[in-house]
Amino acid sequence: MLPLEGITVIALEHAVAAPFATRQLADLGARVIKIERPGTGDFARVYDTRARGMSSHFVWTNRSKESLTLDLKSPAGKDILGKLIAQADVLVQNLAPGAADRMGLGFETLHSDHPKLILCNISGYGPDGPETDRKAYDLLVQAEAGFLSITGTETHPSKAGVSVGDIAAGMYAYSNILAALLQRGKTGKGVEINISMLEALAEWIGYPMYYATDGATPPARAGAAHATIFPYGPFMAGDGKEVMLGLQNEREWAIFCTDILQAPALQNDPRFESNHARAAHKLDLTAIIIKAFSEWSAEQVVERLSAVGIANARMNDMAGLWAHPQLEARARWRNVQSPVGSIPALLPPGGLGNAEPRMDPIPGIGQHSREILTQLGLDKSEIDALSEQRVI
After folding, report:
1. Where does 232-315 sit in CATH, by number?
2. Residue ranges of the domains in the chain?
3. Which one of 37, 263, 363, 378 is CB 3.0 to 4.6 Å from 67, fit for a cystine?
């Protein structure tokens, strides 16, 4: 038995943040009913067609869910949603600012009728304050949270290669919902959770914020290198490929000088006697490292670093990740079904003993509408009428 079996989640969701949170609840066994717009569905379905004709974002964040299409502006659609909420444990929504309240889905309204219901709202900036009504997309929040100011090269800021603001918000929604379920087990009452993308990403940027305490200079943008620890980043090998390596302490620096650079005297060079000094003279040290690495291929550099316990990594691309031997050796891949057939999917990180996480299909738009409505007590003629009226 998975830990969330018997828990029902209603998801008024789109894009990434809320779907990522609810997919993880589904991984643990929760029943997640995803409410989608009739005809078009979650707009993330058409972000791209790279995953065998499906959207890469949607494939990633929506397995193991049931899709119900529902026109929430129609009286019949609102009535059906109300019946679903009455049977649910959790309602998750990341609608446009103010939309949930206009639909009568604010916590005070819901809590009076459904005291055990947990409501999780995900927004860009939170439910109050001067920015509460601003629309928030991931890249915009990365900028607002200061993420772009510390990411990229000295001359060009860069966004993260993944939707880091959405992911941060989704993770905090997921963990807060789990905590709320535990709390409800003690109190018998549901609570309201408000997750802000800005606040979630600001928490993840805690180290740069504290580095710049009291108006101090923030970390410089350093590309793929670390802004304050050196050497820690990419270095070119003799075959033109880059290797990532990282030194965290003086013991590793001594080993690196002796066994890799074969220059033990560098340990006592005043330019490199501490991490602060090495960071201040990184151009000089980079030239020394690249000269030493020029004698070897990238794979030879990795082998030599690994042999003496220096942390390192290959500069993999997506093909390298798909084929990563560690993921294969640990049997992390499964296949899930979808509207276009079987597609590979990674097991979620962690795991509870030997229990296999839920890895059910990725739903088509409205795939489960008739089944869900039948469970609510509607007969075939009523469902047919809703379909003709485009309520579902």
Report:
1. 3.30.1540.10
2. 8-204+328-388, 232-315
3. 363
Write the class of the CATH domain 8-204+328-388: alpha beta
For residue 360, how far is the Cα from the chain centroid?
19
Alpha-carbon distance 90 to 209, whole Å? 34
Look at residue 351 in the predicted model and tell me its pLDDT.
86
Of the candidates 92, 69, 49, which has an alpha carbon nearest to the alpha carbon of residue 339? Answer: 49
Positions marked active-site: 226
pLDDT in tens, 263-302: 999 999 999 999 999 999 999 999 999 999 999 999 999 9
Is the fold of 8-204+328-388 the same as that of 232-315? no
- Backbone region of residue 377 per phi and psi (left: phi > 0; alpha: psi in -120 to 50; beta: other values): left
CA-nearest of 126, 127, 133, 160 to 146 is 160
Please give the pLDDT value at position 79: 97
Say whether 164 sits in a helix, a strand or coil.
Answer: helix
Q: What is the dihedral of CA 320, 325, 327, 329, to 10 degrees?
A: 170
* Residue 223 binned pLDDT confidence (cut-offs 50, 70, 90): confident
Distance (Å, rounded) from C-alpha 108 to C-alpha 95?
A: 18
Q: Can you read off the two tokens belonging to residue 259?
A: 């066994």
Q: What's the whole-number mean pLDDT along residues 144-163?
A: 93
What pLDDT score does 240 carry? 95
Both structure tokens of 383: 């469902």
* pLDDT confidence of residue 352: 87
Q: What is the mean pLDDT of residues 12-36?
A: 98
User: How open is the CA angle 21-367-26, to the nearest 5 degrees?
Assistant: 25
Structure tokens at 231: 């050497």
Average pLDDT, the chain: 95
